[in-house]
Every structure is written in structure tokens, then in C-alpha cells.
Design goal:
Blueprint lengths: L5 H9 L7 H8 L11 H21 L5 H8 L4 H6 L1
Helix pairs in contact: 1-3, 2-3
Length: 85
Amino acid sequence: MPVLDTVLLSAVVYGQHEVHSLDALSHRLGITIPEEDRHTALGDTIATADAFLKLVPMLAGRGLETFGAVLTEVRKHGRLLKDLN
């Protein structure tokens, strides 16, 4: 099943040489995760959703306006997921 992962979306927007952890991406996008919510299911989910919503217009600005177009682009960065696992 196709997956849109914020690590891969971040790589498309910021390049593979940047750090793409949730903390790094949140900092880059100005998302604040309250300390008591960090590393909790709810806190990390909210931060991930906020990051996704901020990345979508950035992807569209690069001409990636459909699920298929974004999926094609993120597949070029799949190595990042293998490196993280």
C-alpha cells in the first residue's frame, strides 16, 4: 500500500541531507510539541499531522499537487526509511 511518510515528504521539500526526525521537522516548521506530550502517541500524532498540513502547500509549490505526483517523488527518497529502520 502506498504511504506518505513525513520523513519522505520532508526529504522532498528540504533535501536528503537535512535531518528529518519529528523534532527536527517540527523545529523547522515552527511546530511546538509541549514537553509533557513529546514521545506520547497523542503528542507525536498531533505534531505529525501539523507537519503534514504545513508540507502540503510546499509540495504543491513544487508542482506536486496530486497523490500520484507526490508518491512518485517520495519513492526517490525511500532509502531514508531503510536507514532509519
